[in-house]
């Protein structure tokens, strides 16, 4: 019986997250109330509070669920690849982010919500902190590859690995934002590959 109750609670939690994701995408985070989410999920507000402290906690749980495929893909890359060329490892990371945004609907929708549909007001201030943390982790990972490349003499002399990592994230973030805003403008994987290769060519020692 306890096992069934736990399973039912998990189903309810997922239905709340699904409803929140859908409403956040349609009308933005600040305009969506917990009552809106409860009604869309077919539960009471009490059920939402049983699972989530507030809207910010709900958003962060939605973010965690959506980024799981990204985390798993990065783990696969870390386990499989050869690090003889750290710049190619960096390329793999950047292209994997683009691929998951194209292929995984939930990841794409949550990225859209986080970048285009969120007003950073006090009610969801934890969302700002969470996004800042996520960006910092990505830049740290990217800088790790760049530092390895620098140690191997593969970067242009005088290259700042921090600035290069920040620029690389801005590049990926900008590609995704513009593609999500109007997907018919360009092929994210094709153009993304060209832009990333140009970026890396500018960093590589001649």
From TrEMBL:
Presence of keyword Metal-binding: no
DNA-binding region: 33-52
PROSITE patterns the UniProt entry points to: HTH_TETR_1, HTH_TETR_2
Keyword Secreted: no
Superkingdom as given in the UniProt entry: Bacteria
Pfam families with a match to the protein in the record: TetR_C_2, TetR_N
HTH tetR-type domain: residues covered: 10-70
Keywords, alphabetical: DNA-binding, Repressor, Transcription, Transcription regulation
Protein known as: TetR family transcriptional regulator
Species assigned in the record: Massilia hydrophila
